């Protein structure tokens, strides 16, 4: 199924995954647009998390293929054909992730959790720290930079997870029940921040959720049952007030609003030059 309003960034064709005799996915065809917010819904066991993991290159489908289409910031790739090192590089360089429990490193501070993600993508530590601080400030955590994860509330920890996912400016962000462990008010705030940081700046958000109120704020809703897509429809996102986030500038910096230190224009779909394709880390790792 295809969203014809936006250029595609990820496509899947006949994606199938089974465990023993049970099919988690049964021939899923899906095209995800660049800049859209897509909610994947369905009852427990419907295959929605398995689909997200396949799209993100975390697991391989047993059949079918998944393709990443080129942008000015990412080369095209057959995700299902990449070796493990290639898929790891793809997740590090092009994708961002936000999970229900955050999966943050408890022994590190909020700042170090975010800076580590930037350094793993090749950023030098001084720049990584600068960008981490700026993103955490943007998300209202300027006073919590040096706190460890256990010292933060659930909502604060999820904001750290969002900052970690966005510090590398991913083309696609995958979120698995990102508000599932939060109360309704905090959920609304965190989702606002997640949407503003992803589709709000022209990149793509794919979110798995059980929550109809979360799906209602996305631009498209796909529903699964028994490993198959049973509905795929555009949605007029429900509007809520934007989160009151501080100016996106580094701590102790004065002056008018400035662009995030590593903020790039929205990704644009186009055929990447051959040199870029060859130099893409996930293509190099696949050799």
TrEMBL record:
Residues 10-251 form the ABC transporter domain. Residues 250-267 have a biased composition (Low complexity). GO terms for molecular function: ATP binding; ATP hydrolysis activity; transmembrane transporter activity. InterPro entries: AAA+_ATPase (IPR003593), ABC_transporter-like_ATP-bd (IPR003439), ABC_transpr_LolD-like (IPR015854), MacB-like_ATP-bd (IPR017911), P-loop_NTPase (IPR027417). One of its GO terms (cellular component) is plasma membrane. Pfam families: ABC_tran. It comes from the Bacteria. Keywords: ATP-binding, Nucleotide-binding, Transport. Residues 276-287 have a biased composition (Polar residues). SUPFAM superfamilies: P-loop containing nucleoside triphosphate hydrolases (SSF52540). Signal peptide: none annotated. SMART domains: AAA. Residues 227-287 are annotated as: Disordered. This is Putative ABC transport system ATP-binding protein.
